[in-house]
Design goal:
Distance between the termini of chain B: 48 Å
Helix content of chain B: 25-40%
Number of strands of chain B: 43
CATH class of the largest domain in chain A: Alpha Beta
Shape of chain B: elongated
Order of helices and strands of chain A: HEEEEEEHEEHEEEHHEHEHEHEHHHEEEH
CATH superfamily of the largest domain in chain B: Metal-dependent hydrolases
Largest interface: A-B, 61 and 82 residues
CATH class of the largest domain in chain B: Alpha Beta
Strand content of chain A: 15-25%
Distance between the termini of chain A: 41 Å
CATH topology of the largest domain in chain B: TIM Barrel
Structural class of chain A: alpha/beta
CATH superfamily of the largest domain in chain A: Metal-dependent hydrolases
Structural class of chain B: alpha/beta
Helix content of chain A: 25-40%
Radius of gyration of chain B: 35 Å
Number of domains of chain A: 2
Number of helices of chain A: 12
Largest sheet of chain A: 8 strands, mixed
Number of helices of chain B: 27
CATH architecture of the largest domain in chain A: Alpha-Beta Barrel
Number of strands of chain A: 18
Oligomer: heterodimer
Amino acid sequence: MKKTIMTMGLSLMALTAQALTPAPGKEAVDKIFINAHIHVGNGKVLENAQLAMKDGKIVRAGYYKAPLTGNEIDLKGKHIYPGFILANTNLGLAEIDAVRASIDGQETGQLNPNVRSIVAYNTDSERIPTMRFNGILLAQTTPTGGLVSGTSSVVQLDAWNWEDAAVKMDDAMHVNWPAEWANRFDWSTFTMQLRQDKNYQQKVEQIKSLFSDAKADSSNNNIKLNAAKAVLAGKKNVFIHSNNPKAIIEAIRYFQALGVKHPVLVTSQGVEPIIDFIKAAGVGVILDSVHALPQTTDDSVDNAYALAAKLNEAGILTALSYPGSMSSRNLAFTAGTTVAYGNDKETALSMITLNVAKLLGIDKDYGSLELGKSATFFISEGDALDMRGNLIKEAYIDGRPIELHTRQQQLYERYQEKYQD
Amino acid sequence: MKLKLKPFVLAALACSTSGQATSIPTDVTNGNVDNRNTIMALTNATVHLNANKTIENATLLIQNDRILNISKGNNPPAKATIKDYSGMHIYPGFINLDSNVGLPAAAKREAFSWGGPETINSTTQGAYNSNEAIKASYDAAEFFTTDSKSNKKMRAQGFTNALSHRKDGIMRGTAVLTHLGDQPEELSVVKAKAAQHYSFNKGSSKQDYPISLMGSVALIRQTWLDAEWYAQQNDMLDFDLAAINTNNKLPKIITTANWQQTLLAEKIANEFGTKFVVKTSGDSYQNLAAVSATEQTLIVPLGQPKAPQINDELDAWNVSYRDLKKWEVAPFNPALLEQQGVSFALVPSSSPQGLDSFLKDLRTAHEHGLSEAGALQAITSVPAQILGRNDLGSLDEGHYANFVVTTAPLLHKDAMVAETWTAGIRHSIKGLPKMKSGHYQLTQGDKSYQFNLTTEKGKIKLAASDEEDEVKYNIKAAGNFATLTVTDEDDEQQFFGAIDNRAFVAVDADDWQMTRLGDVKVSDDDDADNDKAKTTPSSKELPSIPFPFNAYGLIEGDDNDSVLIKNATVWTNEDEGILTNTDVLVVNGKIKSIGSDLSAKQEQRVIDGTGMHLTSGIVDEHAHIALLSVNDIAVNSSMVRMKDAINPHDVNIYRNLAGGVTMAQLLHGSANPIGGQSALIKLKWGVEHPEDLLIDGAEGFIKFALGENVKRSRNQESIRYPLTRMGVEQVYRDAFTQAQAYEKAWKDYNKLSSRAKKKTTAPRKDLVMDATLEVINQERYVSCHSYVQSEINMLMHVAEDFGFNVNTFTHILEGYKVADKMKAHGVGASTFSDWWAFKWEVNYAIPYNAALMNNAGVVTAINSDSAEMSRRLNQEAAKSIKYGGLSEQEAWKLVTLNPAKLLRLDDRVGSIKVGKDADLVLWSDNPLSIYAKAEKTMVEGVVYYDREQQDEIEQTIAAERSRLIDLTKNSKGAKAPFQSKPMKTYECESITGHQHIDHLFFTGAVQ
C-alpha cells in the first residue's frame, strides 16, 4: 500500500512541473489596446475604446484623443474583461476529489476559526491553469466543514508560492450556521430521515460562545479566541453559509448585533423567501450554485437560474460562485445562464467581477477596468459569458502576461498532431 | 410443553363468562374432564351475515366453535343458554391479513456498508438458498406462540383472525392463520400454511446483492426459475427452492412500498402465469387507473399522514405541494379504490398507533366516501376470499363462531365494540350495555313515568320521552344494582333495584315495575336529524388529484400530436444544414413535410416560430432520471433490468423537457464490470405506466464499467474480485466463456429427442448467462463506462476475441488517446464535455476530448450522467466549439444525431427529416447560445413542455399550496413538524440517490 502512495506522490510532482506557474521572468508590461470592447465590470461597456496599462495599473480605459507613447495594439473589436473572481472555492486545496491525500479543504472538529487556508494553498495545482484559461484570475480559497470552518484568503492565480499569491490574506472567517432540520441517512432502512435537530440550539450556542468568550478574554492564551477577536476588531469579515431561511435570519441578526455590519451570505435557493429581509439588513449575497436543480419539486424549473436577477432587482449586492473547484472554470457560463432568466448581461458580468471584489473587500484594486486599478484582465475573441465566445488568448494579472497554454492544451495539440499524421 | 400452555387456557376461561373452550384432545387433564357442548343462543340481535345481508331481531345459535344456526325471530331451542342481545349488532369477525402476531421479531436490518469488506455469499447456515433474502422455507406456524397481549389489542378492534408472517426478506415463507382467542397454539391455528409472502425489500439479509429494486425483481424471477429447475434435478438440496414448489398453490401476497412496485408485482406475476395479492403502502390514489387496471386484489393500510405543522411562511418553504396533497387525498384512498371496482382488504396502518386506531380510521375512510358495505367487505369477506376460506368472513351455519358485537351500526360514531367472539369464545371488550336501550315505562301504584333509556360511552342516560314532560330522570348503576331517581319539581323519588338479564327490576317485585315499551321514542324533529347522522358517508368532497401526483401534475396537457411550426430557423442535422424561414408540419407525431408556406388543417395546432430555432430533441445517452434505483452490486449484474425501476412520474422528466431533452438512455450504475440492462425512454410527461415511456422496437442495451469504480478503489477493505484492471479483464473473459458454455449446453439439450429430454435434466436457466450471451451474440449492445486508455483498449480486444463489437464507450475521458483504435473497432463515444479531477483515473481528461474523437471519425456524443446537467446539454455541446473548434452544426449533433446513432435509433430520431418522429424543440435563440431557452418541447408531436404556460402553472401551484396550507392550519387532526425530504437524484456512482451521502462513498469518507 505504501508503495502505491509513493508512486502517486511522485507522479503528482511530475505533473506539476508541466503547469509552468508562473511563467518565469514575466514582469508587468506596458501595453495599449485600441478598438476593444471594454466590459468595465460595473455594468458599462465601452465600445471600440482604448485600454492602457503601465506598471501593473490601468492608466487608460475609455476614449482618448491624444495618443499614448508605445505600440498600440488594435484588437479589432475583441473584448476586454476584468479577471473573473471565484469566491468561496477549494481551489488550491483539492487536487483529486477521490484521493484523500490530495485534499486539504476541511479540518476535523467543529470550531476551527484559527485554521487558515492560505498556508495549504497549492499554487501548483493543476486546476488553477484551467481557471485562467476561462478568465478566472482571482479566487478566494476557502476552508469548509464544521460550524466554523476557518479563515479564507484571496489569491491571484499566477504565483510561485502562497505568499506571492496572496492578494488579501485572511480576509474572512467562514461560519456554517446550523439548520433547524437535519438530514440523517439511515443505512439500515436506506432512507433519508429528516428531523428537527435537537442539538440546534446547542450548536448555535457553540458559535455564539466562541465570540462572547473572545470578547471577555483578556489572556490571549487561546488561539481560537484570538482568531475570533480579529472578527470583533473588524480585521476580518464573516461569511455566513446557510441555505435555510430561518437560520439565515438568525445568523445575520446575530453577527450584526455583534458589530459585523456587512457579513456576506453564501447561500442558494433558501434565500428566496427572505429577499426583503436581506435587502433591509444590507447584506451581500454569494449564490453558490446557479447550475442547480430546483430545491423542491414545486419550484419553478428555472428557480436556480432566475434567482440572481431577483436578488439584483431587489437591490442586493449579488455575486455568483461555483461549488467545489473541479468545474469552477464554468463560472462565466453560470453568469451567462442568468442572463437568459432575467439578468442583464453586464450585470451578470458584475456578479463575477466587481460585485465579488466588493464582497471580498478588494474592489479598490480589482473587479473592474477603471483607472488606477490593477491591470488584471483578459482579452476574449467574443462574448466571454458564452461558451462560443469565451476564447482567451491573452490574460494579465497585475500587468503580468500569464501562461494560458498549459497541460490540457499541450495534450490536445499532441494528439491532434498524432491523428494528423 | 403442555405445562407452558395451561395458563393460556385458564386465561381464556377467565375472560369468558361462557367459555366453550375445548381442551387439546391429546392432552392430559389434571382434574376432571369438563367438556361442554352447550348451545348458546344470542337473541334479538341485528345480525349482519355479510356486507349485504342483515337479519333484524335474529337468533344466533352457537355450539362449540361453530355457528349452529341463524334465524329470524326469537325462537331459541329449549335446551340452550339464552342471552338477550337486543340493540346489539353482530358482524362477522374481522380478519387482519398483515400481522406478525405470535411470531418472533425479525432480525434487524444491519446498516449497509459499501466501505467494509463485501458480503458476496449468504451468511445463513444450512442447506438454504444461496441468497440470504430468500427465506421461502420459513414456516411461521412452526414459530407461532399465542400472544394474548397482542390478541387482546386486536380483538378490541374487532379482529378475530390474523394472518401472520415474518416481515423479513424478499421471499418470506408461509404465513399462519390463527384465531385471536388466546387458546393454546394447537387450537389457535386455523391453517398452518395459509399464504406465501413476498416483498422487494431484502430485510435483514447481510448479503450485498440485491441492493436495488431491479435487483430484487431479478432475484425473484431467477429464484422461481431455479425452483422449476430444482424440481427436476437430484444434485443438490435447497430447502427454500423445495418450499417454493411445495407451497406453489398458496395465495401469494407481496408487500410493496409504492405504487410503482404494485405495478411491478403484476408484471412479474404475468411473466410466470400467476397473480399476487398486493399489500400496498396506501398510495394507490397516486396512480389509480394503472393500479386498478392490474386487477390485483389489494391489501390496503388505513390511516392518513398527520398534517404538517406550518407555523409561518418560512416553515412552508420546504413543505412540498406533493406532501400537502398526500395529506389531503390519502384518506380518500379506500373510497377511490371502491369507485374503481378494485377488490381490496383493509388492514391497520403500520404506524405504532395504527392498530389501536383501526376502527377510528375505518370511520374516517367512511366519512371520506367508502361505503358501509365496502368497508365491511374489506375487513371480512375479501380477506376470507383471499385466503380461500368459506368458514370465515361471513356468518352462516357451520362457519366459525367468529364475530364482533357492537352497540350500534359499526360505522356509527357512537358504536363501541362490546364483545369479540373467537371460535365460540366470548371476549368482553367494552361489554354489552348493562340495560337494553329503549322506551320505558316505570309504574308504582298510580304513578307512571315514561322515558328513553340509552347508553352513551358506557353510561346509562335517561331522558323524558315527551318533550312537555319536565320531570328529570337519572340512574346510577353500581355492579349489578342500580338506583333510579325521578325528580318532579321538588319531589325526588328513588327506585332501588337489581340489573338482571339487561333489565332493571325491583328487588321486591310488588314494589314497582319498569316495562320496555319498545325502541327509543324519537320526536319527529329528532327523526330528521337522526337520519342525517346515519347517512354520513361522503360528507367530504373528493379533492382533485393531480396526475402525475406532484406540482407539475397540475398542468393541463394537450395530446394533439399534429402541429405546424411556421417560419423558424430549422437545424435539420441533415445535408440541408440550417434552413431559415422554414415551416415544419407534423402529423400524428411524425414529421410530414419541411418547406415554406405550408398550411395547416383545422385540427393541427399552429406555432409561430418566427425568430426562433427549431431542432430535433436532445438525446441523453447517459441518464439516471426517472428511476427508483440505479446500482446493484453483483459483479455480473446483467440480469437486472432498469425498466423494472422506472418511475414515470419523476419530476426530472418535466425539468429535462424544459431543457429540450426528449429521449434518454437510463443506464445502470457503474459498480460492476457487467451492469444491468438499460431502458431507452422518450420523455413523455404524464403517462400512467413505466412501459409507456419505453421506446417500442428499440434495441437492447447493457451497461459495462471499467476502472476505479468496479475495482472498488476507494474501499481499502474491499475483498471483491476484481481489485485491479487485470482482474477486470478476466471477469469479462470468464463471463463470456461461461456464456458460450451455457449456450452449448442448451443447444445440446434442445437437440435431444423429446424422449431423451424427459430423461435428462434441462440446464438451469440463468438470467445472468442469458443476458451475457445476448452481448456476445450482438443482440444486446454495450455502453461501457470507461476512463483510461489501457482499459478501453483492453475491452475492445476482449470483444474482438469473442466476436462482438463494443457499441459505445461512455464517459471515456481518455478516448482522445485511442481514438484511432476506436475508429478501427467501430465503437462510438459518449463523453462529458469538461469533467475531470474528480478521481485519479480522470486526471488526464481534457475538454478537447469530444472534438478530438469526433474529428478522428468516432461517432461522438456528449452526455450528462446528471439530472441537473442534462437540462443544459445544449451548453455542454457548445463547449466543443471553445475546446477544439467544432463547427456549430457538428457541435449540435453531439447531443442529438450522434447519441441517436449510438442508441441505434437514428432512423427514427436525431434529425429533422420527413418520416422521423417529431421530437422537436423550439429555442428562443441559437440552441448553442448560453442565452437560449427551450420554449416548447415536443415528443412525437405532443407539446409536453411549453414555456408560455410557465407563469400560469407557477401561479396555479402557488394558489394550490396556499389553499392546502390554510387547510392544514384549520384542520383539527394531529399535526407534526414537517419538512419535505430532499429529492433523490442519481448518477453513475449513486447508491442512495442522495448526493451528499453518495459523495461520502465517492470520496471514501464512509468506510
